[in-house]
Model the fold of this input.
Amino acid sequence: MSKPLLTADPKAGYLAHRAEIRAAIDRVLADGRYILGPEVTAFEQEFADFHGGGHVLGVANGTEALELALRAAGVVAGDCVVTVANTASATAAAIQQVGARPVFVEIEADTMVMSPAALEAALAAPPGRVTAVVPVHLYGHPAAMPAIVELARRHGAKVIEDCAQAHGATVAGHKAGTWGDAAAYSFYPTKNLGALGDGGAVFTRDPGLAEQVRLLRQYGWRQRYVSELPGRNSRLDELQAAVLRVKLRHLDAENAARRRLAARYLKLLADGPLRLPATAADAEPVWHQFAVRTPRRDALQAHLASHDIGCGVLYPVALHHQPAYADPARHLPVTERACAEVLCLPVHPAVTTGDVDRVGEEILRWSRS
Ligand SMILES: *Cc1c(COP(=O)(O)O)cnc(C)c1O
Done:
């Protein structure tokens, strides 16, 4: 009997770097500064370097990273923000926190990220003033940033990239997160770069935007006890920053491991029964998920579960069909079909090539039954 295969395994991510992580935690405990201290500052610098320079502001989680980036980019209550509906509720939640209205557009049928043509149509006939576009680099596959940035600029809208699933992905050789006006990252434990708790960050190359986020994340303070603007508390703590510094050192190697696993799945399942994930010609994904599609998704998921293979469904219900964000007049057939058919196979760094072979064989066996 092989051991159960999990869809995500944050504990394995800890154990793989146990000694380094424990040393980092001990360092913080001994230092005595626990909020916005030297570890956060060092992590912000290192994560900015990872992008080839810029500004990083650590915040409490990915949702607030998006929210603060939108606010700092000038989005205000009543504005429209164009995004996609096959994403975490967090994407829409952040837009609503600002008081703006999410406008959901269709995705590309092959890569399942925002369709530039759909964005263009939405910008040509907007339901209100569109001040920002939030492409989501879903499953680690970056959206078509050159086209999206061009369209948004032409309409005077800012671009805030949702990078929660795309730490290290590239488009045309440039990192996801460096294309737009700002990017929001989540360090939720299951992400490619995951903390041991909540965490998030805003990346930007715009010093003015960075300064706004810096104020917004802590009561509007530039100077202690002087609130220049209505801010809030959204801080990254020292323990998480210290852990993230360790994890960041291994991110490229772990993304490479994910790529090897994905390549193996693609080869094994090439002639199989599933629609396999497509990669855009100029994109280098980081395989946060390996998302296959089949109209018999639920049956396949049940079959794999009965063989101790855990799979995720990201996301079973599109946001325009969820009570909080319901937009019943909107028809997004490509998105809705993706939500009905998608199944995410295990692809995290604790998965072995043997595991991939087992999953592949089980899928082929299921298709013959
Ligand atoms: C995880 C995630 C978020 C939100 O991150 P939290 O840290 O959980 O708030 C936002 N967008 C996407 C696409 C995500 O996957």
